[in-house]
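[step 3/7] inverse_fold.run input=structure_tokens len=611
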């Protein structure tokens, strides 16, 4: 996610901004820049790469000034480059903007502004905001920003300065975090508390739809219609390490809690409000190619492979296209058959996984068209694929993948709806219904996050916390849920755990069942629910310990389970996106209770860039 820092006061703005941006480096970024106003003139320095590169450029191009804005960019629109780094400017370069978020209607705004004479310097959505402010500017910067934002659809946190207003910093928020720091004769803006807490711990958490006029003496807040908003500063008493995690003890727990917004962001800009039309402009695959496609190959590793399995079940069920799912490390070495009209969909959070990269190269050499689902913009997987669906999940810091997984499942569900319509396997009404169901998922995820008491209780229960081994069982769409739950537990708590298709239980794993073996059974409402209940009864008949994951309102399952974790009702095909949360949280709390290094588990790396 991008990082924003702004300053207005009596000190050197660049020093404060750069210090703040360094405190935000943990968020991940690919370029950076800073703009200040000094002696009535705007000045700006940008650089590709890490902040040390910007530091070096600033050594050569010293910027003075007591008001400024700075930014570390995590690319969403437009590849990482100096020209795409923020701040962005209006035509005369007298108004500067930094932005975190996604402007959904930026293409139409860009075309409209171009038709009115605006000349764009970058490929970003952000630059449209700078030109819009210019369009509406008649001497009142605050009014121009409010008017410009009225045209904007999507998520934003912005900072704006203008050459003719050296005593005013404007900020606004809708859907992306932003705070205002209040000091003595100075004020700050930032994406996150760590950036400014060495200067002040008195902050305003900007609310959606609020616009802030910030001066050295304080902050005035209005809504977009100009109505004043009363605000009360908070005093933050975190230490700096805790602040990076927004008060959570670990990045993993923070990222688990980000998932409702992550799903909203994965959907953002792909589906017009109230329509059935899914669009993936970056996928770079013609509808004719999707119509002609005879086979889809999904390759991935680890958690991404589990998401790929969810995708296989969705695509085959709703689009009726043959899907081959393979581990990247296997695909790359087995000289696979790649018939004409094959489309490969690599799935990778980091976009740097060596095996997945090599699998892409093998498939391309054999004539496949490659469209990746990837989280990191401009990553090797994105660059080496013909097209891409960016997850828009923000950087994932915890080594154990959580929000990236549910984001990948959501992207694959969207792709399925798009493909099924192209292949005449789904009507517009059906598509609209499924899209509406996807839109309901974030609130259902939030329900789970607001009802963790049973998960915490189980994680403290020695039956689970002190187990030597665990079995996870699921069927159909939730077979990958069982695999993912087992992977989460084993990789952060070091308890051996195995995920299995529940139908396979009698083909071997049932031999493992004893009282000491906890068996997590995914038994949400769906076509295989009764079969899961039978599996559970077989386990209980052998004194096995059963922890069921079931649908809210299902009291029947309690009679067959030692413990039950509930998720809200949702269509079975989308249930892995909800089931992911209890298995993530169960693994997290057990690992934390066992004193494990949750964010940096032993022997693991966030991205396996070597074989
Ligand atoms: C999952 O929690 C692990 N961190 C690991 O399995 C990961 O999913 C796998 O290495 C794939 O990474 P990628 O999505 O970046 O390609």
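[step 3/7] decode complete -> sequence:
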């Amino acid at each position: 996610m991008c990082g924003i820092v702004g300053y207005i006061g009596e000190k050197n703005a660049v020093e404060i901004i750069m210090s703040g941006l360094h405190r935000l480096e943990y968020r991940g970024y690919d370029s950076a820049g800073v703009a200040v106003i000094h002696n009535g003139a705007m000045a700006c320095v940008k650089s590709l790469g890490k902040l040390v590169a910007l530091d070096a450029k600033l050594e050569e191009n010293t910027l003075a000034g007591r008001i400024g804005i700075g930014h570390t960019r995590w690319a969403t629109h437009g590849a990482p480059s100096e020209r795409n780094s923020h701040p962005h400017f209006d035509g005369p370069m007298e108004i500067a903007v930094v932005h975190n978020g996604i402007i959904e209607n930026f293409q139409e705004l860009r075309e409209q502004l171009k038709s009115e004479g605006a000349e764009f310097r970058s490929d970003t959505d952000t630059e449209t905001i700078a030109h819009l402010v210019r369009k509406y500017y008649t001497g009142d910067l605050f009014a121009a920003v409010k008017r410009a934002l009225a045209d904007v659809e999507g998520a934003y946190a912005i900072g704006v300065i203008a050459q003719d207003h050296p005593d005013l910093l404007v900020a606004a928020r809708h859907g992306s975090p932003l705070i205002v720091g209040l000091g003595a004769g100075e004020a700050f803006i930032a994406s996150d508390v760590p950036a400014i807490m060495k200067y002040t711990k008195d902050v305003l958490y900007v609310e959606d739809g609020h616009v802030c006029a910030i001066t050295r003496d304080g902050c005035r807040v209005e809504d977009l219609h100009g109505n004043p908003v009363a605000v009360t500063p908070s005093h933050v008493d975190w230490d700096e390490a805790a602040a990076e995690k927004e008060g959570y003890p670990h990045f993993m727990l923070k990222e688990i809690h980000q998932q409702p917004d992550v799903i909203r962001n994965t959907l953002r800009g792909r589906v017009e409000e109230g329509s059935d039309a899914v669009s993936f402009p970056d996928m770079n695959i013609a509808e004719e190619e999707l119509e002609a496609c005879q086979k889809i190959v999904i390759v991935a590793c680890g958690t991404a492979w589990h998401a790929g399995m969810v995708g296989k079940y969705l695509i085959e069920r709703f689009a009726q296209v043959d899907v081959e799912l393979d581990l990247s490390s296997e695909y790359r070495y087995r000289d696979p058959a790649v018939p004409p009209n094959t489309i490969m969909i690599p799935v990778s959070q980091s976009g740097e996984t060596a095996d997945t990269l090599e699998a892409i190269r093998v498939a391309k050499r054999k004539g496949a068209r490659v469209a990746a689902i990837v989280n990191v913009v401009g990553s090797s997987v994105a660059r080496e694929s013909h097209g891409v669906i960016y997850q828009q999940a923000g950087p994932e810091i915890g080594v154990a993948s959580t929000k990236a997984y549910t984001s990948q499942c959501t992207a694959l569900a969207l792709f399925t709806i798009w493909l099924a319509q192209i292949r005449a396997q789904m009507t517009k009404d059906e598509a609209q219904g499924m899209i509406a169901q996807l839109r309901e998922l974030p609130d259902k995820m939030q329900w789970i996050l607001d009802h963790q008491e049973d998960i915490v209780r189980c994680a403290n229960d020695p039956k689970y916390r002190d187990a030597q081994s665990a079995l996870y069982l699921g069927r159909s769409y939730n077979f990958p849920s069982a695999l993912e739950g087992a992977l989460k537990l084993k990789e952060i708590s070091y308890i051996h755990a195995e995920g299995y298709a529940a139908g396979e239980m009698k083909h071997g794993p049932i031999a493992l069942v004893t009282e000491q073996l906890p068996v997590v059974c995914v038994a949400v409402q769906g076509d295989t629910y009764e079969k899961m209940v039978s599996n559970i009864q077989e386990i209980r008949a052998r004194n096995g310990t059963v922890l069921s994951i079931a649908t809210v309102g299902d009291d029947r399952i309690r009679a067959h389970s030692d413990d039950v974790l509930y998720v809200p009702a949702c269509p079975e095909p989308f249930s892995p996106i909800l089931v992911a949360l209890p298995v993530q949280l169960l693994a997290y709390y057990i690992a934390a209770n066992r004193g494990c290094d949750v964010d940096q588990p032993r022997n693991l790396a966030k991205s396996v860039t070597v074989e």
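[step 4/7] annotate
The mean pLDDT is 94.
The two ends are 28 Å apart (CA to CA).
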